[in-house]
């Protein structure tokens, strides 16, 4: 695996696996629908080599009107199965109420995409502060700034999250802004000893 | 990035994280059920 960072774009060269291909396909559907999105959390650490599996890939999108969602829903269910519900109105209610809709390939439960409308100030910040990852000069995906993702993983604090944060920190240390990580950690009231253990 | 634009409401974040945990557990249960049904069919 090789990568370089230029401004807000990370150019990544790697051998893509089935999960990467699944994400690539889903992103191409969103791109065709002109839906702005960010992918956050575990998949990003995995994309950059973290050695673990995941069942789902988390996407945030802007809240869609019912009309726009109709188009999105019709397009997605041609290719994917919604694991929460088969009913369009229920699906929209899930999203509006802050829950995630899970989409897998037909007849497969895993992996799946967990799609959510942005709800909290943090979600909105993620969507408005994107980082682009260009994979193998073939396709691009959007994620949010890594400093915030690391801080949020420190806030969540499970072993898995701390290890993801550590992986991203070590992998991107040269490019990360420590002052921003500390700022986000302070906002999230992350304990100093957790910060010291993972990102120093 | 203007990080000062981010005003974090920790109660809002806690609520969101709690909801995620609950839904994640529901997903694990549904997946286990799906796998069991699939195994029963064989």
Total strands of chain A: the figure is: 9
What is the CA-CA span between the terminal residues of chain A? Answer: 24 Å
- As laid out across the biggest beta sheet of chain A, the strand order is 3-4-7-6-5
Described by its quaternary structure, the protein is: heterodimer
Low-confidence spans of chain A: none
Strand content of chain A: 15-25%
Q: Report the uncertain regions of chain B.
A: none
The CATH architecture of the largest domain in chain A? 2-Layer Sandwich
| Mean of pLDDT of chain B | 89
**General shape of chain B:** elongated
Largest interface: A-B, 27 and 20 residues
Radius of gyration of chain B: 18 Å
Coarse shape of chain A: globular
Number of helices of chain A: 9
Report the major sheet of chain B. none
Helix content of chain B: over 70%
State the helicity of chain A in percent bands.
Answer: 40-55%
CATH topology of the largest domain in chain A: Beta Polymerase, domain 2
Specify the number of helices of chain B. 1
Give me the strand/helix succession of chain B. H
Entry summary:
The complex is a heterodimer of chains A (200) and B (42). Chain A has 200 residues and is an alpha+beta fold.
Model description:
The complex is a heterodimer of chains A (200) and B (42). Chain A has two domains: 2-144, Beta Polymerase, domain 2, CATH 3.30.460; 146-200, no CATH class. Chain A has 200 residues and is an alpha+beta fold. The longest helix of chain A is centred in the N-terminal third of the chain and has 15 residues, at 18-32. Chain A contains nine helices and nine strands. Chain A starts with a strand and ends with a helix. With 42 residues, chain B is mainly alpha-helical. Helix content of chain B is 76%, strand content 0%. The A-B interface holds A 55-56, 83, 98-100, 102, 109-110, 119-123, 125, 128-129, 145, 148, 155-156, 180, 183-184, 187-189 and B 1, 3, 5-10, 12-13, 16-17, 19-20, 23, 27, 30-31, 34-35.
């Amino acid at each position: 695996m090789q990568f370089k960072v230029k401004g807000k774009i990370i150019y990544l060269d790697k051998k893509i696996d089935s999960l990467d291909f699944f994400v690539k396909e889903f992103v191409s559907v969103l791109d065709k629908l002109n839906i702005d999105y960010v992918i956050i959390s575990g998949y990003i650490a995995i994309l950059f080599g973290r050695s673990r599996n995941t069942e789902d890939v988390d996407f945030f999108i802007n809240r869609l009107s019912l009309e726009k969602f109709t188009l999105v829903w019709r397009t997605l269910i041609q290719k994917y199965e919604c694991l929460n519900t088969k009913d369009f109105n229920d699906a929209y209610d899930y999203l509006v109420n802050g829950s995630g809709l899970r989409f897998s390939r037909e007849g497969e439960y895993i992996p799946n995409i967990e799609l959510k409308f942005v709800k909290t100030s943090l979600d909105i910040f993620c969507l408005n502060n994107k980082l682009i990852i260009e994979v193998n000069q073939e396709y691009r995906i959007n994620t949010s700034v890594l400093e915030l993702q690391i801080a949020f993983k420190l806030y969540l604090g499970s072993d898995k999250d701390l290890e993801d944060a550590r992986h991203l920190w070590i992998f991107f240390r040269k490019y990360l802004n420590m002052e921003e990580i500390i700022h986000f950690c302070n906002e999230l009231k992350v304990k100093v000893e957790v910060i010291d253990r993972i990102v120093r | 990035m203007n990080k000062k634009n981010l005003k974090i409401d920790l109660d809002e974040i806690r609520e969101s994280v709690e909801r995620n945990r609950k839904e994640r557990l529901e997903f694990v249960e549904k997946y286990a059920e799906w796998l069991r049904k699939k195994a029963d069919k064989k």
